[in-house]
Specification:
The protein is 37% helix and 9% strand. With 404 residues, it is of the alpha/beta class. Strand 7, helix 9 and strand 8 form a beta-alpha-beta unit. The chain starts with 11 loop residues before the first strand and ends in a 5-residue tail after the last helix.
Length: 404
């Protein structure tokens, strides 16, 4: 991937995540906002984030209006009822029907409705900043809650901020949107929101649903009705490594962009396809989190006049993986000079010695990485590498059959 022409110079905005810190199930829950704090801390330690790139999120009132246009009224009502200090017994009894079980993946919590609206407001702000011409690129790391459906919560996601941002863009700017989901879990919620929409193309690369939540995202899911052909799923085998993942990804996004001709790219950057992630079975390294943003950036320059919005997503190794991956994403979007050093040095060179310097009781006992990229030469080789690569190639060929 190295040695390609650099992307065009751009104006990049970082969407303030402060309001979204309230989206917090518990300290024991794997989806924890400490990931955001650690990422911002890492970027500040290496001088890659300054106040000039920060903008506030969208109006919460307007964001709630958009949420009410994209989610069913009875679902919003139950989310609101369960967000209070003392939910009624009736609301608690209805929680499981809407995917909000107290002991499930997406338990209800105090202030849940307001926090989920705030997440959506940030993603809408990012999309509006780019489409209005305020910026070429915008990043909202608190976003990317791609598993939420119009009528229920799923997979740690209450409201679908990506779907809300896309719906807003369609309503206000009538733009064609290419949505690219790089989370290891299939971007099912966004896909089903727009499954029949010919002006929204959803592309997801993920571990096959044969073995991983949410159990969907197979090549035969291609869209329906007038939206047939605007859905592309690249499902890869467990223990897939960097080369095969990136080969599938690059071919898929190039085919999609060339056929669809989008006005805007919105990408979701869950970073749970890393070998260290505890909730999946993929064996990729930090290299894919350097290369995937670069590929998307170049795609935006060629197909959307640079218009690119990026969101966060999953990622459950909070300390060793997420801060590095998301920092590399922001540095690619903003074309920070440190990238040249990272690309030239073994394992990307050293992380700032002072990182992390935040106060938290959650710091793990195991040693943190000292370099931007991983020393994959020291990793145990994966058995069945050739077989896995062959299966991924066959899955890609099957998925691409309906793309022009």
């Amino acid at each position: 991937m190295k040695g390609r022409r650099p992307p065009l110079a751009s104006r990049s905005l970082w969407i303030n995540n402060t309001a979204s810190e309230r989206y917090h199930f518990s300290d024991e829950h794997p989806f924890h906002p400490v990931r955001l704090d650690l990422t911002e801390n890492l970027l500040r330690c290496c001088g890659a984030l300054d106040s000039g790139t920060l903008i506030p999120p969208f109006s919460l009132i307007e964001a709630e209006r958009i949420i009410r246009n994209t989610h069913r009224a009875d679902y919003i009502d139950i989310v609101t009822a369960l967000s209070t200090n003392q939910p009624s017994l009736e609301a608690i009894n209805q929680a499981s029907r809407f995917g909000l079980e107290d002991d499930g993946d997406t338990p209800y919590f105090l202030g849940m409705h307001e926090a989920a609206v705030a997440v959506s407001a940030g993603s809408i702000a990012a999309a509006d900043a780019v489409m209005s011409g305020q910026a070429d690129h915008a990043l909202h790391l608190a976003g990317g809650l791609h598993h939420a459906f119009p009528d229920h919560a799923s997979g740690f996601c209450v409201y679908n901020d990506a779907a809300a941002a896309i719906s807003y863009i369609r309503e206000k700017y009538n733009a064609r949107v290419l949505y690219i989901d790089t989370d290891v879990h299939h971007g099912d919620g966004v896909q089903w929101f727009f499954y029949t929409d010919p002006d929204v193309f959803t592309l997801s690369i993920h571990e096959t649903g044969k073995f991983l939540f949410p159990g969907s995202g197979f090549p035969h899911e291609r869209g329906d009705s007038s939206g047939y052909g605007t859905c592309l799923n690249i499902s890869v085998e467990p223990y897939t490594e960097d080369e095969s993942w990136l080969d599938c990804f690059e071919q898929a996004v190039e085919h999609a962009a060339r056929a669809f001709k989008p006005d805007l790219i919105i990408s979701q950057h869950g970073c749970d396809a890393h070998a260290f992630d505890p909730l999946a079975h993929i064996q990729c390294s930090m290299q894919i989190y350097r290369e995937m943003p670069r590929i998307i950036h170049q795609l935006a320059d060629r197909y959307t006049q640079g218009k690119w919005v990026a969101l966060g997503g999953g990622g459950y190794d909070h300390w060793r993986v997420v801060p590095r991956a998301w920092s590399l994403l922001w540095m690619e979007m903003s074309q920070h000079p440190l990238l040249a050093h990272i690309d030239a040095e073994p394992q990307g060179g050293l992380l700032p010695a002072q990182w992390p310097n935040i106060t938290t009781k959650l710091k793990p006992e195991f040693p943190l990485p000292s370099t931007w990229l991983d020393d994959v030469a020291s990793w145990t080789p994966m058995p069945r590498r050739e077989e896995i690569t062959r299966k991924n190639k066959l899955n890609l060929e099957l998925a691409l059959q309906h793309i022009g």
